[in-house]
Amino acid sequence: MLGVLGVLLAAGMLDPDTACAEWNKAAFDSKSVGATLSALGLGGAAASSAIVLEAPEIAENGAVVPVKVSTELPRVDRIAVLVEKNPTMLSAVFTLPADTEASIVTRVKMAETSQVIVAVRSEGKVYTVSKEVKVTLGGCGG
User: Fold this and answer.
1) How many domains, in total, are found in the chain?
2) Which of 40, 46, 76, 106 is the most buried (most CB within 10 A)?
């Protein structure tokens, strides 16, 4: 896939700005959950039991912590995963096309025991859920 992307870029058939993922410096540099969510356009979130966050109670290795998020909320277009005590709080942002099932599975690095926070935007409103995950071996912090 990277080879095809490189050929398209070299041939001028693909704009480099289109090929690169959007970089939201403010979201990655934020030092609080509220500031990170605001930088992502997900401010003003309310807690919701309609979001299912699956993560282990105890992660034996903080370098690979599985996280699964799903919801039946209608017209979800964005899901963000944050790890509160990581050096960089924002772990992932998923933009979902219209009529896509609102379910993601990913792995995050965790520096230490922390809250994993998920924000979901549905019909222009933002909802959150969180869960504490205990880390027994060092993750992104060593």
Assistant:
1) 1
2) 76
Degrees, nearest 5: CA angle 45-74-121: 25
DSSP category for residue 54: E
CB neighbour list of residue 124: distance below 8 Å, 6 or more residues apart? none
CA angle 101, 105, 107 (to 5 degrees): 160
Beta bridge partners of 126: 121
Note whether residue 7 is domain-resident. Answer: no
Query: CATH number of the domain that 72 lies in?
Result: 2.60.40.2470
Strand, helix or coil for residue 43: coil
Residue 17 lies in a domain: no
**How far is 87 from 98, CA to CA, in rounded Å?**
33
Q: Is residue 71 part of a domain?
A: yes
